[in-house]
């Protein structure tokens, strides 16, 4: 069995805030094999987006990552800017959440799709144009009118998201990180994007890290999942296990509090009602937090529990 | 593009009407009889009456306005009271000097302002950036005449690179002419550059924070290219707006530097004309300046649409 | 049971430019019973928000009637219109933009009472205190400003504000769409509790069929301005008659995998 494509160990992110340094993400671990899909699940404030940005090397100035992120054996944390740039887009692609603001408002679709190509390949104009046409075709925008000369304001929401995906895969990366790619979309568009990501994975052998809060999307796209809460991983393992036999209270609470079609319940259980002891760890001073650790409860299935035999 | 141009020209009409109406009313709202004002204190009642007749001042107002408009279009703007020549003959030479100074000042203001502003933005928080920002703030607080005086003291009085004052017309040689307008142009340009720097810095900082810049980074685009291609196209717009406003500012500021340096430009001409109640000349200069600024801003509008085609494509593309 | 709200042939046409017009809502008809919830579900562009705005009288319909308690609300005199505005309140989607950041929670809740001149200042304060309690925020919240609260809490503030005038119908336009999953559950529960406590009727607008199904008694499905299907919530799910409804249901990603 070949080594994992992505190995995240003890990844922490500290934010430099007005009130002092703040641990936004603490000690995240997970592995991803080539061609595999892993979901990072959490709500706002869980640190899932920051984790994704840290892997891609896109954190803002006030955020400092520490720990280890190994991609194909190379350590990414602390890598020089030039090396990072060489990898960005070429080996790791990123799909952002809001295509309306994540795409350039004035440059045309064609121009934007060429940017990655310009950065990594030595292509002439004709070659770039061909590749752009090919990319639009791959994401299903090839048959309708030629949108290469359009600006993003002229496109519909679904089309914008496809352009975003086309950009992310433009340089044939091995890993694509998608940050809430379906959240801003209607249900039918969501379905199209999920299907598109699936077909791209098959066709291009992509590994996928999918950031989302939607457990249904996780169920349909990812083999493995990591659940984050309060900046930490609280449970990780195969998707099927997490969704049908969760070991952590938060995961369980999350599952139970979602309304599903055909639901008969008069009230929804909430995280607060199922697991009232789950407080936002940020509210506690560091020394008051219970010491926890990730415990393996089954092969590949880990849960965060209070550390045994440690005085609180 | 042609359609956009036509739209802009059409929209221009109400704007152009404003200086025309104001100038028209200027003379008639001034205390006293317009004809008497035009002829000055030494006029006899007969002369005044004759002029009234000649200028059609006894006709109803709207008829007078019609006459006024046709006069403007045919460039019959009357004679300068004190210079004894037709206004349309007086203005061009002075306008040319002011234009020369203004163009140089504009180039200086934009080059210095954008350079300083970009430095402040890209090195934000670091020493170079902070100094640049501070210079910008100081620059805005310093009035043009202070800048002018400082330049005079340093470059003319101490270093003797330039003469303290005195204007050399083009006829006496290109380089001496240029030397004589350098300090005035520089003072004007430096004074206005501070504002450009502030706007540039703000515009760039705003754009750099936008998500689409992160997207460019995620593709591995080099920082230089991100700045030059992605950031500039969006940051350019507010800077261009400022450049357009700058022209108006320069034209009015030129009066100050022209007076200090003794340069025969339109600003100084206007000041003198106002002081001497030379109404025809004032009228001519105001009209000229007003229309000039309007046309410059039209050009800025048109160049907007080149940088950001969404402007001319309208609702469809946004 | 007589319907509290009857909408008949409601139509709204927007004139986008001199030549083009868009009919956002095409002859929509439905009823809302007293004390019940009608869920209007559709994707963006379906016209559901426009319907909500017309019922809340934020936009005038191009044609059609809206009858509240049997009375046509499009032709009311001033006093009756004011009463209607008290009877029908609206709760919006964006908890961050819909509350004036400079006002305290107390001010925000009392504002509708002040505008409609209900009660003395003391009465208004008392009412604000009671409402904050009803929505599950402590009275300590009264003196704070929106910025001190999370999205879910702000939504509760909006609901408290909407309850101030003792409305009979609340139009909720995507009230939980911007909230996290766990908070969503809390707000949905709260809405149900309040409905029981105050005999409220709801018009609940959302693009999320699961959420709509949970909270509604009857559901209407909108597509491009038309009300394509309508029925009791169970029927819609178990027996959708229209293709569009079926495709909506099938598109939802579920935990079991493909439905």
Summarize the structure.
Chain A is α/β, with parallel strands linked by helices and 312 residues long. Chain A contains 11 helices and 12 strands.
Descriptive account of the structure:
- The complex is a heterotrimer of chains A (312), B (318) and C (259).
- Chain A has 312 residues and is α/β, with parallel strands linked by helices.
- In chain A, 33% of the residues lie in helices and 26% in strands.
- Chain A has a domain at 6-91 and 175-189 and 205-306: P-loop containing nucleotide triphosphate hydrolases (Rossmann fold, 3-Layer(aba) Sandwich), CATH 3.40.50.
- An eight-stranded mixed β-sheet of chain A has the order 6-7-8-3-9-10-12-11, with helices on both faces. A four-stranded antiparallel β-sheet of chain A has the order 2-1-4-5, with helices on one face.
- In chain A, helix 7 links the parallel strand 7 and strand 8.
- Chain A is globular.
- The relative contact order of chain A is 0.14.
- With 318 residues, chain B is mainly alpha-helical.
- Helices cover 78% and strands 0% of the residues of chain B.
- Chain B contains 13 helices and no strands.
- In chain B, helix 8 packs across helix 10 and helix 10 runs parallel beside helix 11 (266-275).
- The two termini of chain B are 17 Å apart.
- The model of chain B has no long low-confidence stretch (mean pLDDT 84).
- In chain C, strand 7 (169-173), helix 6 and strand 8 form a beta-alpha-beta unit.
- In chain C, the strands form two sheets. In chain C, strands 6-7-8-3-9-10 form a six-stranded mixed β-sheet, sandwiched between helices. In chain C, strands 2-1-4-5 form a four-stranded antiparallel β-sheet, with helices on one face.
- Chain C is globular.
- Chain C is of the alpha/beta class and 259 residues long.
- The longest helix of chain C is centred in the C-terminal third of the chain and has 18 residues, at 181-198.
- The chains are: A alpha/beta (312), B mainly alpha (318), C alpha/beta (259).
- The A-C interface holds A 43-44, 157, 186-191, 194, 213-217, 219-220, 243, 253-255, 257-263, 265-272 and C 43-44, 151, 180-186, 188-189, 192, 207-211, 213-214, 237-238, 247-259.
């Amino acid at each position: 069995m070949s080594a994992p494509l992505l190995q995240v160990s003890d990844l922490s992110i500290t934010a430099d805030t007005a009130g002092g340094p703040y641990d936004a993400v603490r000690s995240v671990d997970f592995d991803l094999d080539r061609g595999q899909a892993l979901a990072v699940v959490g709500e706002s404030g869980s640190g899932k987006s920051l984790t994704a940005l840290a892997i891609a090397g896109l954190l803002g100035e006030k955020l400092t990552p520490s720990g280890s992120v190994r991609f194909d054996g190379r350590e990414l944390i602390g890598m020089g800017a030039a090396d990072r740039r060489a990898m960005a887009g070429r080996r790791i692609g990123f799909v952002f959440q809001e295509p309306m603001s994540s795409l350039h408002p004035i440059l045309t679709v064609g121009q934007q799709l060429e940017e990655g190509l310009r950065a990594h390949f030595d292509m002439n104009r004709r070659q770039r144009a061909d590749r752009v046409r090919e990319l639009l075709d791959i994401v299903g925008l090839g048959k309708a009118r030629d949108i290469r000369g359009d600006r993003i304001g002229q496109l519909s929401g679904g089309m914008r998201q496809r352009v975003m995906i086309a950009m992310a895969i433009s340089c044939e990366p091995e890993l694509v990180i998608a940050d809430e790619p379906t959240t801003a979309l209607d249900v039918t568009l969501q379905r199209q994007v999920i299907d598109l990501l699936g077909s791209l994975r098959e066709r291009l052998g992509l590994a996928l890290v999918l950031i989302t809060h939607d457990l249904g999307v996780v169920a349909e796209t990812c083999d493995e999942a990591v659940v984050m809460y309060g900046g930490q991983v609280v449970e990780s393992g195969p998707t099927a296990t997490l969704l049908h036999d969760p070991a952590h209270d938060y995961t369980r609470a999350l599952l139970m509090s979602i309304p599903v079609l055909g639901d008969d319940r008069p009230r929804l259980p909430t995280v607060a009602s199922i697991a009232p002891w789950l407080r936002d760890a940020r509210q506690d001073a560091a020394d008051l937090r219970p010491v926890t650790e990730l415990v393996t409860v089954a092969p590949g299935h880990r849960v965060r529990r209070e550390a045994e035999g440690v005085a609180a | 593009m042609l359609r956009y141009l036509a739209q802009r020209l059409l929209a221009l009409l109400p704007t152009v009407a404003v200086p025309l109406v104001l100038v028209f009313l200027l003379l008639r709202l001034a205390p006293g009889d317009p004809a008497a004002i035009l002829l000055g204190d030494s006029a006899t009642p007969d002369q005044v009456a004759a002029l009234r007749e000649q200028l059609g001042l006894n006709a109803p107002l709207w008829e007078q306005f019609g006459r006024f408009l046709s006069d403007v279009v045919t460039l019959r703007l009357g004679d300068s009271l004190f210079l004894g020549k037709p206004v349309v003959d007086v203005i061009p030479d002075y306008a040319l000097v002011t234009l020369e100074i203004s163009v140089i000042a504009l180039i200086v203001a934009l080059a210095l302002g954008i350079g300083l502003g970009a430095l402040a933005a890209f090195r934000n928080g670091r020493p170079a950036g902070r100094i640049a920002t501070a210079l910008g703030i100081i620059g805005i607080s310093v009035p043009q005449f202070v800048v002018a005086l400082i330049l005079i003291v340093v470059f003319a009085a101490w270093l003797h690179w330039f003469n303290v004052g005195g204007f050399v017309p083009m006829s006496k040689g290109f380089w001496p002419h240029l030397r004589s307008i350098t300090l005035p142009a520089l003072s004007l340009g430096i004074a206005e550059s501070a504002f450009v720097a502030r706007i540039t810095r703000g515009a760039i900082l705003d754009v750099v924070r936008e998500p689409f810049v992160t997207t460019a980074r995620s593709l591995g685009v080099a920082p230089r290219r991100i700045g030059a291609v992605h950031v500039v196209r969006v940051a350019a717009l507010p800077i261009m707006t400022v450049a357009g406003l700058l022209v108006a500012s320069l034209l009015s500021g030129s009066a100050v530097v022209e007076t200090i340096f003794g340069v025969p430009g339109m600003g100084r001409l206007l000041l003198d004309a106002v002081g001497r109640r030379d109404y025809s000349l004032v009228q001519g200069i105001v009209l000229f300046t007003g229309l000039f600024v309007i046309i410059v801003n039209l050009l800025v509008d048109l160049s907007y649409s080149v940088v950001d085609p969404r402007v001319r494509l309208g609702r469809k593309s946004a | 049971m007589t319907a509290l709200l009857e909408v008949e042939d409601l139509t709204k046409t927007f004139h986008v430019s001199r030549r083009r017009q868009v009919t956002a809502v095409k002859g929509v008809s439905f009823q809302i019973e007293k004390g019940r919830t009608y869920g209007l579900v559709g994707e963006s562009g379906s016209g559901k928000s426009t319907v909500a705005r017309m019922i809340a009288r934020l936009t005038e319909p191009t044609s059609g009637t809206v009858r509240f308690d049997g009375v046509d609300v499009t032709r009311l005199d001033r006093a009756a219109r004011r009463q209607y505005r008290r009877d029908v309140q609206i709760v919006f989607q964006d908890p961050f933009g819909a509350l004036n950041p400079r006002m305290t929670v107390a001010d925000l809740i009392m504002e509708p009472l002040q505008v409609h001149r209900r009660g003395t200042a003391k009465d208004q304060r008392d009412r604000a205190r009671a409402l904050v309690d009803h929505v599950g925020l402590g009275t300590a919240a009264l003196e704070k400003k929106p910025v001190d609260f999370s999205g879910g809490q702000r939504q509760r503030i909006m609901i408290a504000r909407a309850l101030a005038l003792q409305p009979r119908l609340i139009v909720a336009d995507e009230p939980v769409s911007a909230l996290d999953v766990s908070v969503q559950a809390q707000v949905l529960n709260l809405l149900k509790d309040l409905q029981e406590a105050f005999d409220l009727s709801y018009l609940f607008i959302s693009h999320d069929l699961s959420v709509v199904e949970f909270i509604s008694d009857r559901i209407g499905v909108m597509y491009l301005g038309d009300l394509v299907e309508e029925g009791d919530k169970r029927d819609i799910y178990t027996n959708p008659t229209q293709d569009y409804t079926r495709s909506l249901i099938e598109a939802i990603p579920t935990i079991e995998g493909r439905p």
